[in-house]
Design a protein that fits this description.
- This protein is an alpha+beta fold.
- 17% of the residues lie in helices and 30% in strands.
- It has twelve helices and 45 strands.
- The strands form nine sheets. Strands 1, 4, 5, 6, 7, 12, 13, 16, 19, 20 and 21 form an eleven-stranded antiparallel β-sheet that branches. Strands 8, 9, 10, 11, 14, 15, 17, 18, 22 and 23 form a ten-stranded antiparallel β-sheet that branches. An eight-stranded parallel β-sheet has the order 36-35-34-32-28-25-24-37.
- The longest helix is centred in the middle third of the chain and has 16 residues.
Length: 710
């Protein structure tokens, strides 16, 4: 019988974020492509794993290679060094002797003391073939067996887009309609990031990309045994989201998949594990590029949609300079509509003096201004495009767009470029370089990346959508000034991420650009909470936005600065709802933009924008942690923001009814000490306390933001 060889398992005690790390082990048999990953904790076992490659439309197991061997030898570092900085061990699964692929190798990087390993793969073609993806592991049956009850565990999956919606669900919901939710990827598949969490036991499996150069890494959860919700099957794939795209791999070509981590954290709050994972992801994908943030300001979209003009922008600039600048507001962001047509960036007739005139006017008022573009979108009437029809991406899923579909309304009348075409990057680079030099924005909002990331037929059939996208985005960004702040909206998270300062973390707060009957205010919806994570996702409004913000706190200042949609304080909200929206974005510490038509706000609503305490919270630049994110609630209610100098707890009542609740410092706020003095940052009044906690009575749709001091 062949002896199972376990790669070095050494318990190494080190404290990062105050926790002991358990080092993973790769277990395998000689001459077998099957392996397992395990930790000291008996819960943490991932078994029966086998790699697969999609060759010419069929999945082929690594077992089909003639030669299969395991080696421990020197390797090339896959991940950046971090606070887990012990001795590095490299283990290789080497498969050779297939008619199409001469060599297929999986590399495992194990660092002493790290609770995770990092892995990727390479393959080399012995003859040309079509590659449809690589599963670094899959299995024919369950590979994770959970102790306890099914509802002891939850699955957290990040969505494909931007981040977009994502999903938090119990394992049993893999057999329900919930898996079909999500317009960009199924709820049972995590793209870039997936976790399996036991919140009460402080345990979490984590699977996360640390690169984004070939195809997105996908982590798919399944229930192989009907109605047995404690037996899960997880597969990890590098490939197109919908598995429609293939690339041609010529003879002798080497393909390298993006590395990802496989980890298990024990005795650490899962919310902290997610934050730590975000730190690790950012260390690897940002390539050392710092992030910068525009000053708080005003965005034109929800007030005017595309109906903007020079005079309207000047009016908003005047209002900020005269009424809000002293409180920290200092930016006017011009959204879509300043151009003649979507994807064609000539200034329209509503800006008769040109965009530079607007820029100069803002500069005279000492107010910064930003500009919206969709860098990979082009208009069919563009004369350059008409001369080069092969520049248009031939998408596999192109369909007629419903003008009332707010997810896609801004793409009407536009096409997306095939970024694999060798002429596209130079053309776009010149176009946007000229635009920035001519219009002189201090920051730009780059939108609608998803169009050029669709799976389709490309001119260069050897490039994936992500490779071609990254090439073009990097070319454009490298031609622009270093001090230009660039934010990214709508598109897969990791592509050329170092080119951006911030990323959008959700959909528009409402139907974009669609006005209410009570002009001049933007259409607003509060939404309705549904109770627990077992309920269907809500549709629109502040409730949906709150969920998105909650699950993406790990992104902020690790992967990129969080860029939410604009917030509102107008009378279509109650005062409590307006405070809740403004507070939610303040405790994110990210981009802070108001979307109301400022000149029309009643005085009491304008006063909300002048609250220096709330502005100061945003200026801390720290994203509050939603402490009850994984505890089964529909939308987290308790948020903790902590710096060296300040401790702020925010509690929301998302419900339609008044709530009275007692909170314990230790169990609800994760605080060990007692005897705090609490100040309400909206009213500046003291909050009555108990010895070990507080009791709050909160009105429907309201918020309490409190600073804790000893």
């Amino acid at each position: 019988m062949i002896r199972i060889k376990a790669v070095t398992l050494v318990l190494f005690t080190m404290f990062w974020l105050g926790m002991k790390a358990q080092q993973p082990t790769v277990k395998f048999q000689n001459n077998s492509a099957e392996y397992a990953i395990s930790w000291e904790n008996k819960v943490a076992q991932i078994n029966n794993l086998t790699p697969e490659i999609k060759i010419n439309g069929k999945w082929v197991s690594a077992k089909n290679f003639k030669s299969i061997k395991w080696e421990e030898k020197q390797g090339t570092r896959l991940s950046e060094e971090n606070n887990y900085n012990g001795e590095v061990t490299y283990v290789f699964l080497i498969c050779e002797g297939h008619p199409t692929i001469s060599n297929f190798t999986i590399q495992f990087e194990i660092v002493k003391g790290r609770p995770y390993l990092v892995m990727n793969s390479t393959l080399e073609a012995s003859k040309g073939f079509k590659l449809g993806g690589i599963r670094l592991f899959n299995s024919s049956k369950e590979n994770i067996v959970l102790p306890g009850q099914s509802k002891d565990w939850v699955i957290f999956n990040e969505n494909a887009a931007a981040p977009h919606v994502g999903a938090i669900m119990y394992p049993y919901q893999l057999s329900t309609k919930k898996i079909n939710q999500g317009s960009f990827s199924k709820a049972d598949t995590g793209v870039w990031l997936s976790m399996l969490i036991n919140d009460s036991k402080n345990q979490a499996f984590t699977f996360a990309s640390i690169a984004g150069e070939l195809w997105p890494n996908n982590f798919k959860w399944e229930l192989p045994v009907k109605d047995d919700f404690n037996k899960l099957k997880l597969s990890a794939r590098s490939g197109a989201i919908y598995e429609k795209e293939e690339i041609y791999v010529p003879e002798g070509k080497q393909i390298i998949t993006d590395a990802f981590l496989v980890g298990f954290w024990d005795n650490q709050r899962p919310t902290q594990t997610l934050l730590e994972t975000g730190v690790i992801m950012g260390q690897n994908v940002r390539k050392g590029k710092p992030m910068r943030m525009p000053e708080p300001g005003w965005s034109s979209w929800h007030s005017y949609a595309r109906d903007i003009s020079e005079e309207k922008i000047k009016s908003a600039t005047d209002f900020i300079a005269e009424n809000l600048k002293e409180y920290g507001w200092n930016m006017v962001q011009i959204d879509g509509g300043w151009w003649t047509q979507p994807g064609e960036y000539t200034v329209n007739k509503d800006f008769p003096n040109g965009m530079r005139k607007v820029s100069n006017y803002a500069a005279e008022k000492n107010v910064n201004y930003g500009l919206h573009i969709s860098p990979l979108r082009i208009n069919p009437e563009d004369k350059v495009l008409k001369q080069n029809p092969d520049w248009i991406l031939k998408s596999y899923s192109k369909k007629t767009i419903d003008i009332n579909d707010d997810e896609m309304v801004t793409t009407i009348g536009a096409e997306y470029v095939d970024t694999s075409h060798p002429s596209v990057a130079p053309f776009l680079t010149g176009r946007y370089q000229q635009m920035v030099e001519g219009y002189n924005p201090s920051f730009m909002k780059w939108d609608h990346h998803y169009g050029a990331l669709e799976e389709g037929k490309r001119v260069d059939s050897t490039m994936t959508f992500l490779q071609s996208h990254n090439k073009t985005i990097r070319a454009i960004r490298s031609a622009l000034p270093d001090d230009l702040i660039v934010t990214r909206s709508m598109g897969y998270l990791f592509g050329a991420l170092e080119s951006y300062d911030a990323v959008r973390i959700g959909n528009d707060i409402n139907h974009p650009g669609i006005k209410s009957e009570q002009e001049p205010y933007a259409n607003l919806t509060y939404g309705k909470t549904l109770g627990t994570i077992e309920d269907d996702l809500v549709g629109k409004g502040l409730i949906r936005f709150a969920r998105q913000v909650a699950q993406n706190y790990y992104v902020h200042k690790n992967i990129a600065i969080c860029d939410p949609d604009a917030f509102f304080v107008n009378p279509l909200y109650t005062v409590d709802e307006a405070k809740a929206h403004m507070t939610l974005q303040a405790i994110m510490g990210g981009l802070f933009f108001v979307g109301d038509r400022l000149e029309t706000l009643p005085e009491d609503r304008l006063e909300l924008l002048k609250n220096r305490e709330i502005m100061a919270v945003n200026k801390l630049g720290v994203h509050a942690m939603p402490l009850d994110l994984f505890s089964g609630v529909d939308i987290p209610t308790v948020w903790k923001l902590e710096t060296e100098d300040r401790l702020i707890i925010t509690i929301f009542n998302w419900l339609d009814t008044e709530v009275t609740k007692t909170y314990n410092y230790k169990s609800d706020f994760e605080l060990d000490s007692k005897g705090y003095k609490l100040t309400d940052l909206w009213t500046k009044g003291l909050v009555p306390t108990r010895k070990d906690g507080i009791t709050l009575k909160q009105a429907p749709h309201s918020v309490k933001i409190m600073e804790f001091k000893k």
